[in-house]
Design brief:
By secondary structure, the chain is mainly beta. It has 2 domains: 358 residues, Tachylectin-2, Chain A (5 Propeller); 193 residues, Jelly Rolls (Sandwich), CATH 2.60.120. It is 7% helix and 44% strand. Bound molecules: 2-acetamido-2-deoxy-beta-D-glucopyranose (NAG) (4 copies). One 2-acetamido-2-deoxy-beta-D-glucopyranose (NAG) binds next to loops. Keywords: Glycoprotein, Glycosidase, Hydrolase, Signal. Belongs to the glycosyl hydrolase 32 family. This is Beta-fructofuranosidase. GO terms for molecular function: hydrolase activity, hydrolyzing O-glycosyl compounds.
Length: 569
């Protein structure tokens, strides 16, 4: 399959070589070094400055040697069309001679952006460095200067120098001190180590970690405030900038989110809770599982994400990275690997029990040809094709109504901890009572290849309903080497009340990114069809449950291709 057939809208292309395994521990794999290949790593560090969104991401321009990891740099005015600039930060000093790794941007009160990143020094120690723009009048911020006083944070005081990385965006407390977190671990315990500074230059480690958990190394921590519904002046979907926390009134009407990327599971988990500047401790709210059974941003392939506050539209935007699920030779052939998911707006649900995510509204400018289906009943065992448009690169919004929930299968409470296992057991081909129903995307005409995005509704012995959302790519293609697990999460909706469930799916050749229940549960998967490509990719609604469903509305748009990281002239 050629590059044109698979190149996703949101690029971050270039070839990948075992990034995952290597990055996790910063081991150099000598057998990979001789391959002529380029490498991308996951983390993106977005920010906004003087009319441009900046996206920094990790990339090795010279090959698979870890010492060359740089911060590549792209800019956009609208989060849709992207222009690639020269790398912003690359190894040039002893404190980053073996690589410029993940980190974050912080826009200081003066308006000056600062980049805080992990450098690998000559002893292979992970240290934290700062860089500033060379020319503040240049909106592209092409050149960055690393002050000679780097590293600003060294792994001393018992911190493991091989597990000490990914500084967060810094925030400023009422006591006039900056704070930031660095991911780390001690034995099996993952840590967010807290540092404080008056001047962004001299950083002092707090006596206690900001938060910790028995879940292995914490990578790419992210910590940020979210507005609470009904509180005071702001709309709860509005983002809150960490800079606003200096205002006590603002600080009193927010909750906080701590997200960590768990190196052991390669998934991301978050809790919502409270944070006290005086004690500098974060406490998840009761009811949040503070471990790897907890809530995830995305129940599919989505890792090392980072959020930022967008001052233009006053919202918090989340960027995540999705790796490839095919093989290294495939990636070498297509010439790229690893993509940036479509940016998502993120906010706290009105009840405060979870975050909601939704593709940024800008994506609508890419919408082209539109087709729709209304009030169409799909009986058990039936399916219908959505025709009249090209679905291979498309945006599909649908709502399904279930008249009769009484037949829903009984839910075993033991399933609650592992929706993925449940989905594996009850995949899209296993007939049920209420569901499976949903979409077959990237399907060929005779339905040999297809990826199912679907729901199943269960009933507990106390007559509550449980909605499972699944992504089943097991029939997306039939190459044995391709990684295609089923992914799943529960959707926290009161389906007995609404009798309806909504699904939005963005399809992009090899990317299927779905938002269930209005963004309550998200699943991104990578699939590599052989037949269902280009104009041969079809879209269907299916129902393999006994209970009939009604597609009350389905709107689908072809999506145009944006400018994907075109080099600057
Ligand atoms: C700084 O950037 C501005 C805007 O791009 C440019 O006009 C100016 O020449 C730059 N200054 C230096 C010293 O490079
Ligand atoms: C430090 O971290 C490295 C990398 O994860 C690990 O291999 C090593 O065992 C850790 N050392 C200690 C003393 O915990
Ligand atoms: C429902 O199931 C749970 C777990 O199997 C059990 O503990 C509970 O007693 C049951 N409740 C009723 C009302 O049957
Ligand atoms: C993406 O690739 C698959 C297949 O190689 C791995 O199993 C995943 O762990 C990996 N995901 C991440 C986040 O690295």
């Amino acid at each position: 399959m050629g590059m044109a057939a698979t190149a996703p809208l949101f690029w971050v292309a270039l070839l990948l070589l075992g990034t995952t395994a290597v990055r996790a521990s910063h081991i150099v794999y000598p057998e990979l070094q001789s391959l002529e290949a380029e490498q991308v790593d996951e983390t993106s560090r977005p920010m906004y400055y003087k009319g441009l969104y900046h996206l920094f991401y990790q990339y090795n321009p010279k090959g698979a040697v870890w010492g060359n990891i740089v911060w590549a740099h792209s800019v956009s005015t609208d989060l849709i069309d992207w222009t690639a600039l020269d790398p912003a930060v690359y190894p040039s000093k002893p404190f980053d001679v073996n690589g410029c790794w993940s980190g974050s941007a912080t826009v200081l009160p003066s308006g000056v952006p600062a980049l805080m990143y992990t450098g690998i020094d000559p002893n292979k120690h992970q240290v934290q460095n700062v860089a500033y723009p060379k020319n503040l009048s240049d909106p592209f911020l092409r050149e960055w200067v690393k002050p000679g006083y780097n590293p600003v944070i060294a792994p001393d005081g018992g911190v493991n120098a091989s597990a000490f990385r990914d500084p967060t965006t810094a925030w400023y407390g009422p006591d006039g001190h900056w704070r930031l977190l660095v991911g780390s671990k001690v034995d099996h315990k993952g840590l967010a180590v807290l540092y404080r500074s008056r001047d962004f230059k001299r950083w002092v480690r707090a006596h206690h970690p900001f938060h910790s958990g028995l879940t292995g190394m914490w990578e790419c921590p992210d910590f940020f405030p979210v507005a609470v519904a009904g509180a005071g002046r702001r709309h709860h979907r509005r983002g809150v900038d960490t800079a606003e926390l200096r205002d006590k009134a603002v600080a009193e009407e927010v909750k906080y989110v701590l997200k960590v990327s768990l190196d052991l599971t390669r998934y991301e988990y978050y809790t919502v809770g409270t944070y006290d500047h005086a004690t500098d401790r974060y406490n998840p709210d009761a009811g949040f599982q503070d471990n790897d059974y907890g809530l995830r941003y995305d129940y599919g392939d989505f890792y090392a994400s980072k959020s930022f506050y967008d001052p233009v539209k006053r919202r918090r935007i989340l960027w995540g990275w999705a790796n490839e699920s095919d093989t290294v030779p495939d990636d070498r052939k297509k010439g790229w690997a690893g993509i940036q998911a479509i940016p998502r707006k993120l906010w706290l649900s009105p009840g405060g029990r979870q975050l909601i995510q939704w593709p940024v509204e800008e994506i609508k400018v890419l919408r082209g040809k539109h087709v729709s289906v209304t009030d169409k009943v799909v009986k058990g065992g039936e399916y219908l094709e959505v025709t009249g448009f090209k679905s291979v690169q498309s945006d599909v919004e649908a709502a399904f109504e279930i008249k009769d929930l009484s037949k829903a299968e009984e839910f075993n409470p033991a399933w609650l901890t592992d929706p993925q296992a449940l989905c594996k057991k009850r995949g899209s081909a296993v007939n049920g009572e209420v569901g499976p129903f949903g979409l077959w995307v990237l399907a060929d005409a005779d339905l040999t290849e297809r990826t199912a995005v679907f729901f199943r509704v269960f009933r507990t012995n106390t007559s509550k309903h449980v909605v499972l959302m699944c992504n089943d790519p097991t029939r997306s293609s039939f190459e044995s080497q391709i990684y295609r697990p089923t992914f799943a999460g529960f959707v926290n909706v009161d389906i007995a009340k609404t009798k309806k469930i909504a699904l939005r799916t963005l399809i992009d050749h090899s990317v299927v990114e779905s938002f269930g229940g209005g963004g309550r549960t998200c699943i991104l998967t990578r699939v590599y069809p052989k037949k269902a490509i280009g104009d041969a990719a079809h879209l269907f609604v299916f129902n393999h449950g006994e209970a009939e469903i009604k597609v009350t509305n389905l709107d689908a748009w072809e999506l145009k291709t944006p400018k994907m990281n075109v080099p600057q002239q």
